[in-house]
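Input sequence (581 aa), recorded before submission:
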Amino acid sequence: MTIALHGSGVSRGIAIGRIHILDRGQTDIPEYRIESQQIAGEITRLHTAVATARQQLRSVREHIPATTTVDISSFIDAHLLMLEDAVLTQEAERLIREQQLNAEWALKQQRDALVAVFEAMDDAYLRTRKDDVDHVVNRIQRILRKPSPAAHEIPDSKLIGHIILADDLTPADTVLMQHQGIAAFATEHGGLTSHTAILARSLGIPAVVGLHEARRYIHQDDQIILDGTRGVILIDADARSLKVYQDRQERESKYYSGLIRLREAPARTQDGTHIELLANIELPRDFDTVRVVGAAGVGLYRTEFLFMNREQPPDEAEHLRTYLEVLDKLNGLPLTIRTLDLGADKQVDGGRQKGSVQSNPALGLRAIRLCLKEPSLFLPQLRAILRASAHGNVRLMLPMISNTQEIEQVLVIIDELKADLDAAGIPYNKKLPIGCMIEVPAAAICADIIASLLDFLSIGTNDLIQYTMAIDRVNDEVNYLYDPLHPAVLRLISSVLRAGREANIPAAMCGEMAGDKRNTRLLLGLGLREFSVHPANLLEVKETITESNIDHLQTLAQQALFARSSKEVDMIMEQMNSGLF
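Predicted structure, token format:
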């Protein structure tokens, strides 16, 4: 009998193969008190395990081929930095000395304290950085129990064509197994923004995560079908299902290979409307893909990575150096730099600030609120962006604006910084375009007022949907309510686009909703003319744009605004996407 398991598809594609269950042999962490004369030896054991972990990761890094198209070594480097960070080891050492805990127990307590800080954060990307703490600590714990490397870390392991099933995967695991020829992977935990998910998309490995208790149903060497697009795994599929997926696999392979033909084609609808098609960028390594897919520029450059895995925040010189390197790679294409958008709690990395963990971080101190409260974080970045604007096509974008007072405060600060730069004779673009993210319902409702103060708007649907629906999109218990097609969400989007038109300024969309080709025609009908999407989705969206006629879509889009439910909107979208007007 065929069994279907459902998780989150984080990297599209279909894989058919046998399961290899990644068993790390993890046992319960021993917890016991040591004698005073054992303290020095226990501390030595901890430091030896950390040094071994560092050596293992460096070995993994050396096995990454120089021909790899993305800078996947940056993920390994992030874990190496954690191993160098005194925050991890010094506290564990203190617990060994003062409380006479064994090394495993002390390390576990420090791990729990660090993870609690990350879990209190609102930003979904940063919250999943707790996974990195787990990956690093688990590696040290395994070494403390058994110093030899895991079987899958031995370069000659025979994993070709297998689908990996694990509780979770580290970036090092993913890199090693990709080069050993795995077909796909599935994990019981993990989310859309985990390092593992990002790597899977970059490396083109089909992947499904969040398959809770999958190992109750899947066993070693089971033949399965993994659908990374739909987030489904089929166990013991019958001959008919197998044939259906084999045919889909062949069609999808041909389809994605053929999309490259659109790289140089204009993003223009059949009735001649030009659409600006830009890329969202999270990490520096992603900039190489902007030209590969023919993006017209970068519509969202997230700068949070600059503040991670470090004790002190970056200074103006480091910001400037990073932005100039990016502009050099873009070679004249526009770059929209979003200012710091860290989550609510700041006790980690280079964005940390003193203060207690907030009880409701989703509504707390984050993004522009934090920046206005902590000028030491904000001013160096603003100055660097201004200075970078003299060297390329730069736009500055403010996150999580909820009222005009925030905008006015920022504009005053920027005017003061411009005066300082003028006095010092430092060049900058005096007409640097300044815009903001519309991701708070209050900002969407008052978008016409906000538009009168700025040069452009960009709709961040990830948070806009979350706040409109009053749900945490990374919470498994309620994320079924995360609904881009809810009529309330569509009405907010429509009002922002209308505000942009009336103010004669661009109104883009940079959330995940813009990167799903199923939504493209609906968004075109609502008036969206500037999309910013993940590079992996750009050519699919472009193809849909080139096959669309806006005149035919506007009437149906207006019907969607007055639909009574998401189900009605979905039916209208089916009509749009099938061409049955």
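Checked by second reader. The first helix runs from residue 39 to 62.
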